[in-house]
Amino acid sequence: MTRAELAKANPELLAEIEAQAAKDERKRQRGLDAMLHPGLEPLIERARAEGKQPEDIVMEANALLREQIASTGMMDALKRDAAPAKAVPICEAPWINGEQKSPYHRPQLLVGANGRKSR
């Protein structure tokens, strides 16, 4: 039976069905609006377009939020680790007691262990 046939046969039933459908759609839209969170916008818009219920996208939204939290935690850890490096002076070579030294010092223990003289 088509919508037109139902409208002819039983207009009250058609009006009741349309009212219930509108009520359900408003409920679905409110549920999707309640899920809005930064980073979830594309998922929510896709769910709106495909007619999905909020319950249908919960697991995907949860995975996206967990991924965001993990990446934020990693970035915070990297920033904490990098903070001490900001205090290191940038120059061509280290200065020790006012004298510029070579950045590489040959290990003396290995020289003695091999029995060779330093060149």
Q: What are the SSEs and their pairings?
A:
Elements: H1 3-9, H2 11-34, H3 41-50, H4 54-82, E1 95-96, E2 99-100, H5 108-114
Antiparallel strand pairs: 1-2
Helix pairs in contact: 1-2
Report on this structure:
This protein has 119 residues and is mainly alpha-helical. It has one domain. It is 65% helix and 3% strand. The protein contains five helices and two strands; from the N terminus they run ααααββα. It has helices at 3-9, 11-34, 41-50, 54-82, 108-114, and strands at residues 95-96, 99-100. Strands 1-2 form a two-stranded antiparallel ribbon. The relative contact order is 0.05.
Shape: rod-shaped
- Characterize the biggest β-sheet: 2 strands, antiparallel
Count up the helices.
5
User: Could you name the ranges where pLDDT drops below 50 across 5 or more consecutive residues?
Assistant: none
> What class, by secondary structure content?
mainly alpha
Mean pLDDT over all positions: 80
Helix content, binned percent? 55-70%
Strand order of the biggest β-sheet: 1-2
Q: Quaternary arrangement of the chains shown?
A: single chain
Spell out the helices and strands N to C: HHHHEEH
What distance lies between the first and last C-alpha atoms, to the nearest angstrom? 100 Å
> Per DSSP, what share of the residues sits in E-state strands of 2 or more residues?
under 5%
Number of domains: 1
